Amino acid sequence: MKARDIFQAIVRYAILSIITSAFIRVINFISSGYEIEVLLNFKYFVVSFMYAFIITIVNVLGFKFLYSKYS
Q1: For the chain, the helix, strand and coil percentages under 3-state DSSP, each to the nearest 5
Q2: Closest by alpha carbon to 53, among 45, 63, 65, 64?
Q3: Transmembrane segments in this chain: where (predicted)?
Q4: What is the pLDDT of residues 28-40, one digit of tens each?
Q5: Under a CB-based contact definition with an 8 Å cutoff, are residues 38 and 28 in contact?
Q6: Contact in structure between 25 and 1 (CB atoms under 8 Å)
Q7: 38 — phi, psi (to 5°)?
Q8: 16-63 tens-digit pLDDT
Q9: How far apart are CA 26 and CA 1, in angstroms?
C-alpha cells in the first residue's frame, strides 16, 4: 500500500465522519425541540466528528481484519 492510498483512505474516512457527525447533529437538533443553538454550537460538532471518525476507523479496520481472516 502506497502513501497516496493511505492518504486517500484517510480523506474518505474524514468525509464519511463529517457526514455522520452532521447526521448526529441533526438528530440532536430534532430531539432538542428544534433549537437552532444546537446546530450552531461548533464545539459539539467537533466532538461528534471525532466520535464518528474514531468509530469509522475502528469499523473499517475490524471489517478489513474479518475479511482477511475469513476469505
Answers
A1: 90, 0, 10
A2: 45
A3: 12-30, 42-67
A4: 899 999 988 888 8
A5: yes
A6: no
A7: -65, -40
A8: 888 988 898 899 899 999 988 888 888 988 988 898 888 888 888 888
A9: 36
Phi, psi of 12 (to 5 degrees): -65, -45
DSSP 34: S
Length of the chain as a residue count: 71
27 phi, psi to nearest 5 deg: -65, -45
Q: Tell me how crowded residue 48 is: count the other CB atoms within 10 A of its CB.
A: 20
Helix (H) or strand (E) holding 67: helix 42-70
Domain boundaries, the chain: 3-70
Q: Cβ distance 17 to 58 under 8 Å? A: no
Closest residue by Cα to residue 63 from 13, 23, 1: 13
DSSP letter for 35, please. -
